[in-house]
Predict the structure.
Amino acid sequence: MKVAILSRNENLYSTRRLKEAGEAKGHEVDVIDTLHCYMDITSSNPTLRYHGAELPMYDAIIPRVGASITFYGTAVARQFEMMGTFNINESVAISRSRDKLRSLQLLSRKGVGLPRTGFASKPDNIKDLIKNVGGAPVVIKLLEGTQGIGVVLADTAKAAESIIEAFMGLKANILVQEYIKEAGGADIRCLVIGGKVVAAMKRQGADGEFRSNLHRGGSAEVAKLSKKERETAVNAAKIMGLNLCGVDLLRSQNGPMVMEVNSSPSLEGIEKATGKDVAAMVFDFLEKNAKPYSNKTRGKG
C-alpha cells in the first residue's frame, strides 16, 4: 500500500513510529505536512497539491491533525476522501470528537457513563450551575483546551464562582463537571483500533496534581480493564465514528465514565507502558480495511 501520514512534524514519536511500522510491513509511507497541502476543488476531478506538484494517489491516510489546525486539517482529509482515499479517521469523525460539548451530548444520548456536566453561556444563577453538577469541588474546563491546559479544579463553591465569572468575562466557553474524587487523580487511557481495545494504561497524576497528563509529570502503567470498561471504550469510539482513538476513562463508584475521546492519540506513552507495538496494529487494520471509496461519508460531511 501507499500510505500518507498527515503530520506537521515527521520527528514526533507517533509519526515516526507509524512510518517505521508501515515500512517494516513493506508499505510505502510518506509524511505530509498538512498545512503545506492545498486543494484544487473542481466538479469532476478534485486533487491535492503539495510543494508545487500534484500529490499522487494514496491507498490510505492516517491523519495526525493537531487541535490548533482542526479546521484546515479536516478540510485536507475531506479532500482525500473525495479522491477515494481511505481515511482511518474520517474528517467528520475528527470534527465531532474535537468539539467537547458535541462529543458529550452524543455520548449522553447513547447512555454512555459521563461525569455530570453543565454548560451555559450567561447563566442567571452561577450558584445553581454549580449545584446542578453536585456542588464543589467541581472541574472547570475550557472547551478549546487540550492536554490539560485550561482545566481547573475549584475546591469550594466560592472559588468555582470566581473562576466561572473570570472565564465568562473573557467570553470563553466552559464546561463545569462534577469532580470524581474516587478516581484519585488517575484515569485509564484505552487505545481503540477497529472497534477493539488493543492496549490500556493507567495514568496517575503527580503529587498535588489532579490532571493525569504524562507531560505534566504523571506516570503510566499497564491497566487491566473490566468488561464494562472495555465495552464503554469501544462504544465511545463507535459513537464518535473513529477507527483509531484514545478513550480516557475515570473509575467512579457508578462505573466507568468517559472523560474524552481523542482522535489523534499519542502512541509514546501507551507503547512504552504496555510494550505493545500499537503502530503495527494500525497497519494491520489498514491492510484489512483500506479500499478505494470505502469511507462511509466519502467526503460528504
